[in-house]
Amino acid sequence: MIPVKNAAEIVKMREAGKALKEVFGVVAPLIAPGLTTMELNAEIEKKISSLGATAPCKGYMGYPAAACISIDDVVVHGIPSLRRLAEGEIVSVDIVLKLNGYCADATRTYAVGKISEEKQRLIDVTRRCFYNGVAKLRAGARLGDAQSAIQMTAELAGYGVVRAMAGHGIGRSMHEDPSVENYGRPGTGVLLKAGMCLAVEPMITMGTWKVKIDDDGWTCRTTDGSPAAHYENTVLITSDGCEILTE
Ligand code: MF3
Ligand code: CO
């Protein structure tokens, strides 16, 4: 069952999205060589609680932190640690927050200091995947229209589309129906309705689409060691398009 949010719920979804934007306002200026991912997570957690919100990731299936912080070949679910960011790396910061009962979910991939042109292009194309995908979202469209646009954008640029992880519906829970894959065929899949909320999150690699999970049970990396980028926002489907709630 795919929840359709009513007007009062949409107000709360917007408020959660706005709060999450404020959290990313704290993250961006901190990204620099030498910062540990645990220090970054602590600042994120502090900001989330100062907004009167909570971090649903913490404790979710035993996940130990508020944020997922994933460096270079780590695609998603990097666990904050004493690992320091280093010049030339790319780091994806994935944060979910819950405010007044409603969740918002977003991810940004940042450059640490100066990065290669290749990595910058990966980040840029991953953002473009998101925008080309959400450009297809509106009531009456099919989810596959957006999924296909994401896949085409990545593959035409020569990149891999991670298959093992997907976006999702979002609302009272951070994960609701439907699953939002980053590949698909136009005209197929869920028929979208105004009031549905989705976390759309292309996870794109410079090489293979294949991933493996570390022994910690979370850290998800590319099998070929190629770097990956991730761009995610929470969006609300409307009659004539969509509203991006987290940017
Ligand atoms: N933003 C991630 C997602 O969309 C959140 C994962 S939270 C974790 O699934 F607890 F599973 F790490
Ligand atoms: Co998500």
Report on this structure:
With 247 residues, this protein is an alpha+beta fold. Helices cover 27% and strands 26% of the residues. The protein has four helices and 14 strands. Strands 7-6-8-13-14 form a five-stranded antiparallel sheet. Strand 13 and strand 14 form a beta hairpin. The longest helix is centred in the first third of the chain and has 21 residues. The two termini are 27 Å apart.
Short description:
Helix content is 27%, strand content 26%. The protein has 247 residues and is of the alpha+beta class.
| Topology pattern, helix = H, strand = E | HHEEEEHHEEEEEEEEEE
Let me know the largest β-sheet: 5 strands, antiparallel
Portion of residues in beta strands equals 25-35%
Q: Could you say which small molecules are bound to this protein?
A: 2-amino-4-trifluoromethylsulfanyl-butyric acid, cobalt (II) ion
Structural class: alpha+beta
